[in-house]
Specification:
Length: 400
C-alpha cells in the first residue's frame, strides 16, 4: 500500500501498541497500573509499528543471549508483542513487520531470533522453525510417593511475591542458564514477567532451595482452588535447579503443600526425569508434548560457526533464505566447525528447516523423509544426524 509506513515507535505510541497486541489476543486493554509496570519492558529502538495511517500492526524484541551446543552464547533477539489489528490481517502487515525487524536485526549483528508462536502456520514463511519441544507433566499428589533412595535435598524457604521478585534475576542466573537452548534474561524482561504473575493469581509463592553449597534451585507457583478445600491444583510457573539434590528437594516440597490434589508443570524438558522419582512412575503423566520455541538464524554463517558438531563425515549444506538473502549459499559442516564453501552440496534446505536442524531437536534424516530437505547425497542425512545431534534435550525455559 502506498500509504503504509513501517517504523520504530515513539515512546508515546508504545501503549497503543500494547493495547493492539492485547486485542489481537482477544484481551481487553490494560489498566494504567498494569501499563506502569509493563512499560519498563519496552526497549528503545526495538519496538516496530505499521501505520495506514493509524497503527495497524506491531512487534517488538529485547536483547538476550542463547546457549548453543558447545556452550557458547550468541546474541539473541527475543521477539514478542506481535499483533495485527482485526480487519487488517492477511494484507501484508505482518510481512512488512517481519521484513523491517529482521533487516534491523541483521544490521545490528544479532545471530539468532526466537519467538513463541500463537499460531503454528505463520512463522515458517519468515524463516522461523520449531526448535524446542516441551512436556506438560501432571502429578496426582495424594497417590505419588518418592522412592526411598531419592536424595533428601536441602532446606526450602517460601517467599511471597514482594520479597521474591527482586531475587528472581539472581536465582535464574544461578540455576537456569547453563543448558543448551537456555537464554539470558536481561533486566528489561522481569517487569513483564512480574506483571503477568500478579494478574494471573491471587497468591504467587516462590520456594527457594538451599543445598550444601548455597542456593541452588527455586520453584514459582500458585494454587487454584478446587471444588473442595483439599483438591486444589498447584500450578508451577518456574522450576529451576542446579543439581539433582535441588531437583529432588523441590519435589519433596511440592508434595508437602497442603490442600492440593494435583501438581501441574507446563512446558518442561522432554528428558526431565520426574517419573523416576516415584515408586510408581505412572504418577507423573505427560499430558501433551508441544512446540516450545521457534528459532530464526539471522546470521547463518555466525550461527553455524559458533556451535560444535558430532563425530561424522563433513557435509555440505545449501541454504536458501528468501527473507535474508545474505545467508544464501553453501556451508561445509564438520567436526572441526562450519564455514562457507563452493563445493557441491549434499543437502538443500530452507532457512526455517535449518532452524529446526540447528539444535538437533529434529534429525536431518526425518526432515529429509518428510520433504523438508532435498537430498543430493544419500549418505548425507545420516551424517548430518550425528553432526547436529545433541546429548541432552534442548530446552529454552523462558516464555516472553
Amino acid at each position: 500500500m502506498s500509504d503504509r509506513t513501517v517504523r520504530i515507535l515513539r515512546p508515546d505510541e508504545q501503549r497503543a501498541a500494547w493495547d493492539l497486541f492485547r486485542a489481537a489476543l482477544h484481551v481487553q486493554p490494560g489498566t494504567d497500573e498494569e501499563w506502569d509496570r509493563v512499560s519498563a519492558a519496552y526497549e528503545a529502538e526495538r519496538s516496530w509499528g505499521v501505520f495506514e495511517p493509524d497503527l495497524v500492526g506491531t512487534a517488538r524484541a529485547f536483547e538476550s543471549e542463547m546457549v548453543v551446543p558447545g556452550g557458547k552464547r550468541l546474541p539473541l533477539a527475543a521477539v514478542t508483542g506481535v499483533g495485527v489489528r482485526a480487519g487488517r490481517t492477511r494484507r501484508g502487515v505482518l510481512s512488512a513487520l517481519q521484513a523491517a525487524q529482521l533487516g534491523d536485526l541483521a544490521e545490528r549483528g544479532v545471530s539468532l531470533a526466537l519467538l513463541h508462536a500463537s499460531e503454528g502456520a505463520i512463522y515458517g514463511r519468515y524463516g522461523y522453525g520449531v526448535t524446542t519441544l516441551a512436556n506438560q507433566v501432571v502429578v496426582k499428589k495424594h497417590r505419588a510417593q518418592l522412592r526411598p533412595d531419592v536424595p533428601a535435598g536441602g532446606e526450602v524457604t517460601v517467599l511471597g511475591i514482594d520479597e521474591a521478585a527482586p531475587r528472581w534475576p539472581e536465582l535464574y542466573a544461578a540455576t537456569a542458564t547453563g543448558h543448551v537452548g537456555a537464554m539470558t534474561r536481561p533486566e528489561i524482561y522481569w517487569p513483564g514477567f512480574e506483571g503477568h504473575l500478579r494478574r494471573r493469581a491471587k497468591l504467587v509463592q516462590t520456594a527457594v532451595h538451599r543445598g550444601q553449597d548455597g542456593t541452588d534451585g527455586y520453584v514459582i507457583y500458585h494454587v487454584e482452588e478446587g471444588a473442595a478445600h483439599d483438591n486444589g491444583k498447584l500450578q508451577v510457573v518456574e522450576f529451576s535447579y542446579a543439581n539433582p539434590a535441588a531437583f529432588a528437594g523441590l519435589w519433596r516440597f511440592l508434595l508437602s503443600v497442603d490442600l492440593v490434589d494435583e501438581i501441574v508443570l507446563p512446558m518442561r524438558p522432554l528428558d526431565e526425569p520426574h517419573a523416576l522419582l516415584f515408586t510408581d512412575p505412572r504418577m507423573a503423566k505427560t499430558e501433551s508434548i508441544d512446540d516450545e520455541s521457534w528459532l530464526r538464524l539471522v546470521d547463518v554463517p555466525a550461527a553455524l560457526a559458533a556451535r560444535t558438531y558430532g563425530p561424522a563425515e563433513p557435509v555440505v549444506i545449501e541454504v536458501a533464505d528468501r527473507s535474508l538473502p545474505a545467508n544464501d549459499g553453501r556451508y561445509l559442516v564438520g567436526p572441526d566447525g562450519a564455514s562457507r564453501t563452493d563445493a557441491e552440496p549434499a543437502l538443500r534446505l530452507s532457512a526455517d528447516t535449518l532452524a529446526m536442524l540447528y539444535f538437533g531437536t529434529w534429525r536431518a534424516s526425518a526432515l529429509a523423509d518428510t520433504g523438508r530437505i532435498e537430498v543430493l547425497d544419500p549418505a548425507a542425512p545420516e551424517a548430518a544426524d550425528v553432526l547436529f545431534g545433541t546429548r541432552e534435550s534442548v530446552w529454552c525455559g523462558t516464555f516472553f
